[in-house]
Amino acid sequence: MNAKRADDLEKVPGYRWHANGQSAFSGELLGLYQRLDRLFFGWAREYDAAEYAFPTFIPARELDKVDYFRSFPHLATFPVALDGSEENLRAFAGRGPLSAEGNVRLTAPAPIRDVITPAACYHFYVQFQGETLTAPRVVTTRATCCRRESHYLPLQRQWIFSMREIVCLGTADEVKEFLTACQERVDRFFKRVHLPVQWNAATDPFFNPSRNPKYLLQQLDPVKTEMVFQDLAIGSVNFHRNYFGEAFDIQRAGKEAFSGCVAFGIERWIFALLTHFGPDRADWPDLN
Ligand code: ATP
Ligand code: ZN
Ligand code: MG
Question: pLDDT digit string (tens) for 12-56?
């Protein structure tokens, strides 16, 4: 099967692509989605990671602490609501809320103070803000993430997608040790099931990269390693140095905490498995 084509994927039972960059799952594919997330969660539990469930929005003020909006303005999606005044709502309802193309014809919006989660791990730095850690901390969450992209492709590049992350906060050595061990763990899985995945150094998708000192720094000293299936990153291992510890005042061993995360894009894993093993469950590897 050439799963790159949306119409091939449409034939996989339990899959439905929505052209606005979203996927719906049922049946065997939903089972696959759930087993993949359980697989990642099982790896998190090998580090005694506590699981968290976070809300959908992050206050814009919090992400601004890491300069998110200057680094990734192209990815951000904001929740918009109408200004609640009677007059404004009346104007909206009265004028024909949609254009012929289906565009919402907004009247005055209420102030926007939030952003829809762009990556799962940001929630942890906000959550642990101001804390002093007495030991390294490993945590995990699955988040529905939202990134505006230049184009969308079923499972491969979505507006809304699912990310499971395992995150470690600690000293530089504690975090590096965690990331190395976790990468080895995931690599053992790829070898066991014979999924051809390569580990490649990468950089974050900065806006205007050549003018961003953070991008230039990442090029000199790679801190991001991707799990690449064909030319698609199905996950990444990221070393943030003490960037979040500093921005959110998280302390460890008398200094700003270091952090790192291992991120899995669940839809992209499904894409990789369907492309490599085909659409029949009987041919999928054992994920337990
Ligand atoms: P890419 O370079 O392919 O856009 P990225 O570097 O932006 O990926 P990360 O920020 O490392 O990705 O996000 C972690 C993981 O989330 C990725 O490895 C991928 O599996 C998944 N992911 C990222 N963006 C998308 C998207 N738009 N649709 C589906 N999955 C995504
Ligand atoms: Zn992360
Ligand atoms: Mg990338």
Answer: 899 999 999 999 999 999 999 999 999 999 999 999 999 999 999
Of all atoms in ligand 1, which is nearest to the CA of residue 202? Answer: 6
User: What are the domain boundaries of the chain?
Assistant: 6-77+118-283
Mutate to test the pocket of ligand 1, among 157, 214, 269 (most ligand atoms within 8 A of CB): 157
Across the range 250-274, mean pLDDT stands at 98
Query: How many degrees, rounded to 5, is the angle at CA 282 between CA 33 and CA 8?
Result: 65
Ligand nearest to the CA of 202: 3
Residues in CB range of 85: below 8 A, 6 or more apart: 108
**Coil vs helix vs strand at 164:** strand
| pLDDT for res 3 | 46
Nearest CA among 157, 145, 155 for reference residue 120: 145
Rounded distance from Cα 168 to ligand 2 centre (Å): 10
pLDDT digits over 170-213, tens only? 999 999 999 999 999 999 999 999 999 999 999 888 888 888 88
Distance (angstroms) between ligand 3 centre and the Cα of 86 equals 45
Which residue type sits at 13?
P
Counting ligands in written order, the one closest to the CA of 153 is 1
pLDDT 10s digits, 264-284: 999 999 999 999 999 999 999
> Could you tell me the distance, in angstroms and rounded to a whole number, from the CA of residue 106 to the centre of ligand 1?
31
Q: 152 near 19, Cβ under 8 Å? A: yes
CATH of 6-77+118-283 among 3.30.430.20, 3.30.930.10, 1.10.8.60, 3.40.50.410: 3.30.930.10
Give residue 243 CA to ligand 2 midpoint distance, Å: 12
